[in-house]
Structure formats: C-alpha cells, structure tokens
C-alpha cells in the first residue's frame, strides 16, 4: 500500500525517529540494519526524522561514501515520505547537495514540530550537554560559517585526515571525561522546554535511550532519548499521539 504523500503543512499521523546511526565509511551491520528499516518500516510512515549523526563522519557533500543509504532515502522521498535530517556533532557539514541527492530536508537544530496538537522539540542533543565545556567551545568554533567555508575549501584527502584526527581527539576526551559531564544538563533541558513551550523533547547524542517524565512549572513533560546504533538499532515510532521507544535487535 502506498501511503498518502506528506505535503508541507500536513500533520503526519505516523512517524519514525532515529538518531546516532553513526554509519561508517565502510558498509557494516549498522548500515544493513538501517537500510532494512528504510525499505520495510519507513515506507509505511508519513515522515522520517533523523536527529543527527546519521554518519560517523561527514567532511563535505563531495564525499562519494554512503551512496546506498542516500539512494534509499531518495527512494523514500520519491514515494512521498517526508525525510528530515538534523545535523549531529559528527555530520554537521551535511549540506544542500546532500539534501538534493537524498531528497531529505535539512532542519535547523533545534526545531519545534506539532504532532497531534502537541509541541515537540527535536534536537540532536549535544547542545544540551552544557557541562562539557571543552566540547561546547569546540562546537561553537566548528559551527561558524567562516570556519566551515575554510574547512570545505581544503582538498578532500586533507579534510578526511583532519576528521580522523578530530575523532581520535574526541575518543580521548570521552575516555577522560566523567559520564555525568557528557549527559544533558537538567537546567539546559528545563530552559529548552520553557523557551520553546514544548510538551516533549526527542533527542539522541548521549546514547542513553530512555523516556524521562518530569514536570516544568507544574506541567508534565516527556524527554525521549534515542539510542545509538552501535550494537543494535533504536527508534521511536509515533502514531496518533502515542510514542514508543524501541530497541531493534540485530
Ligand atoms: Mn552525537
């Protein structure tokens, strides 16, 4: 059955959310599982939201990698499924050429969408980890348009080299930093709920899949955290006002 095309402005009644698929340059188990999701479950929904770090690394839209995934996304959007991508801290250089090739719409981070009359804040989640000062400083630098322009002007091989160095540096930082520092800051979460008047936040990045129920100024709110795809898949299925966080065993 072909789903009705998701037109702009339409509220989708069925959605899939994923984050942190972390697809590597070489095809592996995560890629096979993600492609399976794109070909089986994703065609049944109105919209697919990828909340950042689809790719483990992205040094520019001129990279030839990940063609199978890009083709599968393009096929979905050609079938009328709205495909939306937020930048993660790994793939923040996804640009308009990627969007065109994949049929995906790049959304700003954070962004508020309405589902069944509820305000839902979609974000990768790294901006909420305000206790990690070293990371936030780095984030500010690499999100500068001028920095990105200069980086993208470098030869592809140089960019790949620099990205590998950055990933090694990130691994060292992660190994040396206490886990609580790398989780979201409760104050930043509360501020995000208040600033956007959101009823719900869906994010990834921390690789701590969970549904957190809390209150903001006496109002019940939910924060759904998607898991990473390193050992198994993770997604949120949304249908008619209900959200289900699911682990997808491999
Ligand atoms: Mn991330």
Please name the fourth-level CATH homologous superfamily.
Metallo-dependent phosphatases
Fraction of residues in β-strands? 15-25%
Strand order of the largest sheet: 4-3-2-1-10-11
Number of DSSP helices?
A: 7
Keywords summarizing the entry:
single chain; 250 residues; alpha/beta; Purple Acid Phosphatase, chain A, domain 2; six-stranded mixed β-sheet; five-stranded mixed β-sheet; 7 helices; 11 strands; disordered N terminus; binds manganese (II) ion
Give a structural overview.
- By secondary structure, the chain is an alpha/beta fold.
- It has one domain (14-248): 4-Layer Sandwich (Purple Acid Phosphatase, chain A, domain 2), CATH 3.60.21.
- The protein is built from 7 helices and 11 strands.
- A hairpin with a 2-residue loop joins strand 5 (111-115) and strand 6.
- Helix 1 (29-40) runs parallel beside helix 2.
- It is globular and about 50 Å long.
- The two termini are 26 Å apart.
- The relative contact order is 0.17.
- The structure holds manganese (II) ion.
């Amino acid at each position: 059955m072909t789903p009705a095309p998701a037109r702009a402005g339409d509220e989708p009644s069925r959605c899939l959310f994923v984050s942190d698929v972390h697809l590597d340059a070489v095809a592996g188990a995560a890629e096979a599982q993600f492609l399976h999701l794109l070909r089986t479950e994703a065609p049944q929904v109105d919209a697919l939201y990828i909340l950042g770090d689809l790719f483990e690394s992205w040094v520019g839209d001129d990279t030839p990698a990940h063609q199978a995934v890009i083709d599968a996304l393009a096929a979905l959007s050609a079938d009328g499924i709205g495909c939306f991508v937020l930048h993660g801290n790994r793939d923040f250089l996804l640009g308009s050429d990627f969007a065109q090739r994949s049929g995906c719409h790049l959304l700003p981070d954070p962004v508020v969408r309405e589902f069944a009359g509820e305000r839902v804040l979609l974000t990768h989640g790294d901006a909420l980890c305000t206790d990690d000062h070293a990371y936030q400083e780095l984030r500010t630098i690499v999100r500068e348009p001028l920095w990105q322009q200069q980086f993208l002007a470098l030869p592809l091989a140089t960019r790949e080299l620099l990205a590998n160095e950055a990933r090694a540096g990130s691994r060292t930082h992660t190994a040396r930093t206490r886990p609580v520092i790398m989780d979201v800051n409760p104050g930043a979460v509360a501020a995000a709920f208040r600033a956007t008047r959101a009823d719900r936040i869906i994010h990834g990045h921390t690789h701590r899949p969970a549904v957190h129920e809390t209150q903001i100024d006496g109002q019940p709110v939910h924060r759904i955290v998607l898991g990473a795809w390193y050992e198994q898949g993770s997604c949120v299925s949304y249908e008619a006002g209900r959200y289900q966080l699911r682990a997808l065993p491999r």
